[in-house]
Amino acid sequence: MSALSVEPTDAPLTFEELQLATRNRGMPLEALRYDLTPTGLHYLLVHFDIPALDSATWRLRIGGAVKRPLELSLEDLQARPRRTIPVTMECAGNGRARLQPRPISQPWLLEASGTAEWTGTPLAPILEEAGLDEGALELVFTGADRGVQGEIEQDYQRSLTIAEASRPEVLLAYEMNGAPLQPQHGSPLRLLVPGWYGMTSVKWLTSIEAVTEPFDGYQQATAYHYQAAPDDPGEPVTRIRVRALVVPPGIPDFLTRRRLVDRGPVTLTGRAWSGDGEITKVEVGVDGDWTPGTLGPSVGEFAWRSWSFEWTAEPGDHVLACRATDSSGATQPVEQPWNEQGMGNNLVQQVDVSVR
Amino acid sequence: MSALSVEPTDAPLTFEELQLATRNRGMPLEALRYDLTPTGLHYLLVHFDIPALDSATWRLRIGGAVKRPLELSLEDLQARPRRTIPVTMECAGNGRARLQPRPISQPWLLEASGTAEWTGTPLAPILEEAGLDEGALELVFTGADRGVQGEIEQDYQRSLTIAEASRPEVLLAYEMNGAPLQPQHGSPLRLLVPGWYGMTSVKWLTSIEAVTEPFDGYQQATAYHYQAAPDDPGEPVTRIRVRALVVPPGIPDFLTRRRLVDRGPVTLTGRAWSGDGEITKVEVGVDGDWTPGTLGPSVGEFAWRSWSFEWTAEPGDHVLACRATDSSGATQPVEQPWNEQGMGNNLVQQVDVSVR
């Protein structure tokens, strides 16, 4: 079954897609210049409504197949060991609206990513304290945002295997870039699963339930799958696929966003990241000729790496592109990796420029 | 001459509009619940690119028809008298994509507003210090964002008459919601003109120039006009037209955003604001029957006012609407006030709900 209520289309954008685009927020690509994305520039995808939670009365319940159910306040969590990790996050639907035919959902082009420093407490010791039953297979994370999707009324819920949830970098996060979470990023507490697409890092977390059967909720079993066709069950979407982006050089035209660049030496800069390993190469394509760029430092083990490329801009129209490769050997496709839900589309970015 | 490079259309959304929608950011309407919009939820419209300015080396130059040109650092400005004002800001293009035919530009529906506490120093005493020449007519405010619009390469520039610029609430603002401006909101300094549409509050301000002739730059003389047709010069867009918005009740469907509401008593809440006076009335329409709501407090003289309405939701489909009136007597139209550039469209909001 497809997770989409409308079939993919080559037709123009729908009103429903526009409604989603004016609610959800991309990161303008010039913001790739910041090691850490300012909080107000980070991408944002909210499935339903941003809930209003009172952090004073809010509690996190940990239960299900555990020996010692817990109920924790924000203060309880803040009193536990504190860890801060810079993490590049990306929406699994990033790139969806570049596909042909186009799956109908939030119509992301390239802007659904960002990097922030997240602070919280590791989940694994809390699980240990709760004492998972032997038969516990997965943890179900429930957020406070509620709505209807795929004709199913639901709280937003996702699961992780015990092994994935117990990785040391998995946090219960209450701060972003040194400040308490803003409402839209999950206040007072969200799950943070570095390396995975954003749907995994459940916002407005209210409960963690250990279950002994695979979780079959809508967001886990239906949505977020790489389906080749509507009747293909597909593989689940998990870690972030490798991607590089370039800061569009020069100045833009307001409406077309086409770039106007002065002739001569231009330093192209950008970022690259992957949930499957380190970035080992970024190549830059100028009118189809690919040359390796220079890698800069990573912002962190789970965060993007800067890169640069010295380009001599010759007058005329050009197409710039960039392509990253990671330590697993994965690289970005130059032809679209189409799937039914428009997930993980890491097709190389192209930027049209006019050099004068 | 129209400010648009493409004619208004009844055709579906274009790729160019989508590109703008994924860069610019609306405020999801549930965020109307906050007196002050969290910084990361405030609407954002950037004409060109967000510039990268170094606040340590940045200077504001005040010159032109003045006796004593000034060059001020951020520290100089911060050492001057400090004032904090809550201000509701709105993009003049808010509502544009609801028009038929639809002017092609940033395709706002209803989300291009927000309220923040802005801190800065009043402009008037600085003008006095610089000593305006007798012939000075307007001030031209230049931002550091540069690009092409209407086929004209330009820094973003707007002007104000001396009288408007000298009003006590006009600030040179360096903080938003108690923190230094984030890059996207004009860091290190922006103009803030309470009561006017957002294009007036020039971000990334680098210079203020007193001029003796009316400024005829693109953003002043061509864009931001209420044009009835392409050959109508039109009236300039100035103050924010009266508007009320309601927080959509119940829970949403992900794709359609249609609301599902439980039967029984529902407290509808929202905000209303106007740049032309106080809000004196908010009416709520249920299936076309209008009843006055209850006004709550204003967040400030230049900020939105809360309102509420007790609705008894009966099973079935309903259309909710709201309409504000201000102390100037202005109210919101129930039929679209079309104009060529899609400016100041304060047509009443409608929310489709299904009550169960």
Give the assembly state of these chains. homodimer
* CATH architecture field of the largest domain in chain A: Alpha-Beta Complex
Order of helices and strands of chain A: HEEHEEHEEHEEEEHEEEEEEEEEEEE
Tally of strands of chain A: 22
Strand arrangement in the largest pleated sheet of chain A: 14-15-22-21-17-18
User: Unreliable stretches of chain A, pLDDT < 50, 5 or more residues?
Assistant: none
Question: How many separate domains make up the residues of chain A?
Answer: 2
- DSSP helix fraction of chain A: under 10%
CATH topology term of the largest domain in chain A: Sulfite Oxidase, Chain A, domain 2
Rg of chain A, Å, rounded = 21 Å
Alpha-beta classification of chain A? mainly beta
Number of helices of chain A: 5
pLDDT averaged over residues of chain A = 96
Largest interface: A-B, 60 and 60 residues
Main β-sheet of chain A, in a few words?
6 strands, mixed
| Fourth CATH level, the homologous superfamily of the largest domain in chain A | Oxidoreductase, molybdopterin-binding domain
Globular, elongated, flat, extended or rod-shaped: what is the shape of chain A? globular
- How much strand content do the residues of chain A show? 35-45%
